[in-house]
Amino acid sequence: MDTAAVSSGQPELPDFIGLLSEVFKNASWAPYLLFWRNIIFSLITAGIILLLAYLAGRKREMLPGKLQNAAEALVEISDEFVRGILGPKGSRFTPFIGTLFIYILFMNLSGLIPFFKSATSSWSVTLALALCVFVYVQYTAIKELGFFGYMDHLAGKPRGALAFTLIIPVMMFFLHLVSELIKPVSLSLRLRSNIWGDDVLLAVLGGFGLMGFPLLFFNTLMAVLTAVVQALVFCILTTIYFALVMPEEETG
Q1: pLDDT > 70 fraction of the chain, expressed in percent and rounded
Q2: Is the peptide bond before 158 cis (omega within 30 degrees of 0)?
């Protein structure tokens, strides 16, 4: 278990990293396993996705197999979803947003596999994902609007007669600036809190043994639904963030 979880008495399901650290607790490297546990699980998830992508694209055929067919359908759905919000030119963001969805979904679901853990139950992981979104959105805004154009965009439009006083534009600028800085925090905490809450609930129900099995089974199904919904919400918000900084003619 995480040292933070142990110190707070937080219930959680056992995972193989925690078990390894217990078996080799006297080894000098055991504490590092716990410290980097969420990163290890996130890397394992990334490795699984890369393996599936390799297997799906290794032998592309006119009559695709099940894995290739599923991969192609996922790409097509992702592209239609992104273009539905950003317009025809939004396809350039499909690889980023589609990869985010798959990666987050797999990490969310991995906590339901025995002796695995959802890396997205850790704020350090979800914050890193949210910061990637933040940096890419700011880069896109400056690239599309120019630096001064982006500053003008943050000042708000339309401004009306009060714009000549500079009071409203300055107030709007700082309001939008704070809003942009808060986005990665809110985006990451929303994902982390939902997945963490499901993991804790399943751990508590698992402690009831056979008596808690009906509730455990029901909440496992709900956790699967939550995993999908939270991955989708993260990507919907990401797509909207891009839409807010794109020129209107491109998203129309």
Answers
A1: 87
A2: yes
Write out pLDDT tens, residues 178-207: 999 999 999 999 999 999 998 888 888 877
In a domain, 209, yes or no: yes
In whole angstroms, how large is the CA radius of gyration of the chain? 22
Q: Domain count of the chain?
A: 1
Domain hosting 87: range is 52-251
In a domain, 28, yes or no: no
Instruction: Answer whether residue 160 is part of any domain.
Output: yes
pLDDT of residue 207: 76
Say if residues 42 and 57 touch (Cβ distance below 8 Å). Answer: no
Asked if the structure places residue 234 within a domain, the reply is: yes
Between the alpha carbon of residue 163 and those of residues 51, 157, 228, 244, the distances in Å are 55, 10, 44, 21
Distance of CA 52 to the CA centre of its chain: 19
pLDDT higher than threshold 50 for residue 18: yes
User: Is residue 156 classed as helix, strand or coil in its secondary structure?
Assistant: coil
Out of 90-94, 150-154, 163-167, 170-174, give the one with best mean pLDDT.
90-94
Q: Which stretches within the chain are classed as H helix? A: 3-8, 16-23, 30-35, 37-58, 66-86, 94-110, 123-145, 147-154, 167-206, 213-245, 248-251
Q: Are the CB atoms for 209 and 146 separated by under 8 Å? A: no
